[in-house]
Amino acid sequence: MLDCGAFLCAITQSTRTYARDLLTHPTENIMRVLGIETSCDETGVAIYDSQEGLLAHRLYTQIAIHAQYGGVVPELASRDHIRKLIPLIQQVLKESHIVKADGIAYTAGPGLIGALLVGATVARSLAWGWQVPAIGINHLEGHLLVALLEQPAPTFPFLALLVSGGHTQLIAAQGLGQYHILGESVDDAAGEAFDKTAKLLGLGYPGGPALAQLAQQGRPHAFEFPRPMTTRPGLDFSFSGLKTHALITWQTSAQTDQVRADIAYAFQQAVIDTLIIKCRRALQHTGFTQLVIAGGVGANQQLRQQFRQLADRLHITVYYPRPLFCTDNGAMIAYAGHLHLTAGHTEPLSFKVHPRWSLNNSA
Fold first, then answer.
1. Any bridge partners for residue 44, and if so which?
2. Most exposed among 80, 133, 273, 307, judged by the fewest C-beta atoms under 10 Å?
């Protein structure tokens, strides 16, 4: 017969021993790190090996689920993470030819609280079962560091432009966990403005890539859009006005297919020009010669072409993650977790997620 009192005492003692061992020897045998990303509507899982690099990565996107609503429904996102996360973990472990990882990293924020809790609880449960350390990673830091997986890779210090659906920020990266936000959007992020403008033009969901594709058919100078906040000093952004300008232009135009393409072109060019102007200022301010561009908008080919031209003019080097890793993914969390765990960064067994989490506060 089970002695419940003895069982609980054993569990308590095991918990204390486990926590003590993690805090005393946090970096022993940290070779393979499992990364879990569930901040929004994509379930990403990866294994990073300190000697062999990225062993396996898988990504499941919920675009089909949310498309009928024209945007992400938080509750549906959380439920789908529950369905997909464990099978994806099993898949990457099998592809990596390992039974368990030596450490676990999970996205602790920013993001949708329900989605974050799914990843955090699975990660912490696995860490307990495997008796390995786990650490929460800032989603934005994952984006910022994933370019280091590429060859050639940037080295600290560098300037980072994080440009996605949820964030547009210029960050001075001095070292691991040493980040200073130089400027950010005061309203819509660039990717958010892309999606909203695409929606008002009737391009469906997700709108950003569709708008970029349509812009290829647009005529230069058919419409002139403003470059917001570029005539005043500072490094902050504002893209909400561009969305409104696009709406008014569309409502007062002939509303033909060509006009739709022209508006897409003018909008995209205004966003890119604004990003370039602000990045040039930030490079001059910091004196950095390396620029990392990360986040979903970083996959935009017109943006990449014009930043290559900027790099040639300023004699700097621009780095990008591969297009697959511009959007949310598990590889960036596994790699960031590897860096933190091998640097000796640890966390207690208790955990919490952060729907809002500034990189200025990252440890």
1. 37, 59
2. 273
Kindly state the average pLDDT of the residues 111-120. Answer: 98
Q: Are 55 and 32 in contact (CB under 8 A)?
A: yes
Task: Look up the pTM and report it.
Answer: 0.90
- Looking at residues 222-245, what average pLDDT do you find? 96
Mean pLDDT throughout 81-91? 98
The sheet carrying 178-184 orders its strands as: 178-184, 168-175, 158-163, 290-294, 317-319
In this structure, the answer to whether residues 104 and 169 fall within a common structural domain is no
Q: Which domain holds residue 44?
A: 27-145+327-361
106 with 139: CB under 8 angstroms? Answer: no
| CA 73 – CA 71 distance, rounded (Å) | 6
Of 250, 283, 282, 279, the residue nearest 264 (C-alpha): 250
Q: Helix, strand, or coil here: 202? A: coil
Is 11's pLDDT higher than 70? no
Based on the fold, state whether residues 299 and 350 are members of the same structural domain.
no
In Å, what is the CA distance from 337 to each residue of 3, 120, 159, 269?
39, 13, 21, 36
Interval 121-174: pLDDT, tens: 999 999 999 999 999 999 999 999 999 999 999 999 999 999 998 999 999 999
For helices 257-286 and 240-251, what crossing angle results, to 10°?
A: 160
Same domain, 263 and 233: yes
Number of domains in the chain: 2
